[in-house]
Amino acid sequence: MEPLIRLINISRVYQVGEEQVFALKNISLNIYPNEFVAIMGPSGSGKSTLMNIIGCLDTPTSGEYYLKGENVSDMDDNELAEIRNKEIGFVFQMYNLLPRANALKNVELPLVYAGVSKAQRIAKARQALIDVGLEDRMTHKPNELSGGQRQRVAIARALVNQPSIILADEPTGNLDSKSGAEILNLFHHLWEKGNTIVLVTHEKEIAQKAQRIIRLRDGLIEGEEYT
Amino acid sequence: MRILTEIVESIKISLDSIRANKLRSFLATLGVVIGISFVVLMGWAISGLDKALMDSINLIGEDMLYIDKWDWSGGKSWKEVRNRKSITLRQANQLISELTLAEIAVPGATFWGANAKSEGIDFTGIIVYGTTADYSLLPSGEVEKGRFFTKFEEQLNKKVVVLGHKVVSSLFPETDPIGKIIKLEGYEFEVIGVMKKQGTMLLDFVDDRIYIPLGSFMQLFGGTHTRNISIGIKAGNLDRMDDVREEARGIMRRIRNLKPWQEDDFSINETKAFEEIVSTFRLYVWGIGLGMTVLSFIVGIIGIMNVMFVSVTERTKEIGIRKSVGAKNRSILLQFLVESSTLCLVGALTSIFVCSILVFATANILPKFVPATAFLQKFLPFEFVLYATIVAIFVGILAGLLPAMRASRIDPIESLRYE
Asked: Are B49 and B77 contained in the same domain?
């Protein structure tokens, strides 16, 4: 099967003063459609950098990245924005919702940049909110929602464009264990429905929920296992 | 389609943020509000001036030439004009009889500050105008009530008078003046008519005049050889103006015994003189207004730029979020440009609204106390409102350019980490 994500010898180097810091060192990795992958590692292991590169927020210093067979590693800012809009759905630890916009408006946001008409935008955003179980919270603003509900809004926003991958960076890091478990179940449910999910975490119990765990340390892949 | 969606969304976002920061937005747009106010008020003043000019031109008649010792335009030196010899009645009559191209020519003489008595009212300060029956054929010769005097009355030096519109209220505040007798410098005159209201901002004295036959005027105020007569010549057609002017000039030069190398010792006045006066006036208004406008727009641009920079910094995280869900650099640029333009536009609409009220109130109230301001219009001229709006949008784009460029270049990874 053709991999959805193909990373070949990816390196990311930061210039800190005189020194060159390798956040990622020659990483090669394939992720296939409808996989549920956890990227695990302690802080400083390079997992955030890896996620930024997979999510097209950052580009590698060297190496090649193919997303759905397309070379993403040498695209410019605008092309990357287009890829993020169509192919990637982000879920962040801090939710990253627009504070002044209600749930529906937040979920509509990717569709605005995709140029979808207003009527369709509302219909799709509604459906996405129903899918995450927030049909009665559509007009609430983020500060009127609980942490778990906010993260559901963020997941709905990630889903609304039907992206190829959902990228979640410590999605339960800010939640109590009960809401955290609910969110993880939601991811599991989304995976069962055919989505490809990449989850970044430093907690082992959370990583166990995934189908495949990739361990990162000091910018290298330390090991890989299937649960 | 996509760009339209983004613009509409951006307008909504900016209205939201204006609402969220009312005081800040108000202070930021103050410069623009003042600038726009200058533009529309300036336009208003100029449109009033233009209206007054048009009224005056229509009153005098665009195809009229006035041959006079005095010069209207003020282009000649006052001393030179004052030392000119008066145009005598004999010279005026000779000119009128020799003119062939003009439609009509009407002589006129003025006496300022005459005394008149009517039923118990004694009024000094009347302007007496002696002329012929032909005066009623000029644009300014329209009668409202009664009639103008006839050729017959004129030739017999009858003691009849037609009152200017404002004179009526001074001499006959309550009664109908027609048929009444007034005593002008001790002589009894019968009132036979009242002129239409004609005064304009530039020529407000015409309503203070009274009209009597030229012969009677000479009997009353004398000076057959010294009193200055002006001759109004109606060309009848704008195309004939040049021919009529040259003919009149030639005849006058001959009558006044001017040698070929001598300059004219009389002036041929036209409505153009008024246009010149008004255009200098207009230049002042423009000059002052434009200076103030530019100054306040500079202040306005700085104010808005400053607020936009603050806004960009405050919303670093928002920019990161937008970029992470697929906003391109130019979408962010557009968003902030639309935001600063909306800010300016709201400022412009506010100032247009306030100025409209101000202007409407001023034009309704001020002339009651200061009659000379009657030329003021009640509404802002539409084209200036339009210019103001366009200028506001342009100023907004100008002021928002640098902050918007900074916003569009923000790195999404950095900004998502921003708290």
From this structure: no
